Amino acid sequence: MRSHDYDQEFRDKAVRIRTWGTGLLAVAALLWGWCAVLLLTPYDVEREPGDKYPVECESRLTTDRGTANDGVRRGDFCADERDWPEALAVLGLSVPVSVAGAVLFTGGQVGLRLSAHAQALRYLDRRAEEEANERK
User: In 10 A of CB 14, how many CB atoms?
Assistant: First the structure.
């Protein structure tokens, strides 16, 4: 295999790795967005299926009342609908996805930079040899 072919294969592999990293980072961003929606948006809760007047609930993160912790004891339907474990599970799932995406993206980018650096060094060596041959 010639060095040019090997270098091209190396670059293609680095681009694929970087693309996978970008995809995983996009998935992690979607998970973070989902977690933000769960924590920051108000929502409605039906007391029973087909309820014409659902209960309006404040967002979990910005509420001043204790609906997040002791709402069940007071008969508050909001406490059961969006619970903290769901939001924390989404957030916890995003961590390994983010780490894997960052590692893959960085590895692919470093591979591309190394390949470009090696190509620049080969070019400079060739130019130096040509100049040395011209001086003789």
Answer: 19
Residue-wise pLDDT tens digits, 85-115: 788 899 999 999 999 999 999 999 999 999 8
Strand ranges, E, within the chain:
43-45, 55-57
Take residue 112 and report the two structure tokens written for it: 């591309």
Res. 13: pLDDT tops 70: yes
Q: Average pLDDT over the chain, rounded to whole?
A: 83
Pick the range with the lowest mean pLDDT from 29-38, 80-89, 113-122.
80-89
Distances (CA, A) of 121 to 6, 109, 132: 16, 18, 16
Handedness of CA 44, 45, 46, 50 (dihedral sign): positive
Helix axes 3-40, 84-135, angle to 10 degrees: 160
Q: Please return the burial class of 7, using the count of CB atoms within 10 Å of its CB with bins 0-12, 13-18 and 19+.
A: middle
CA pair distance 13, 9, nearest whole angstrom = 6
Q: Is the pTM of this model over 0.85?
A: no
CB hemisphere CA count around 135 (13 angstroms): 6
Residue listed under structure tokens 């970087």: 18
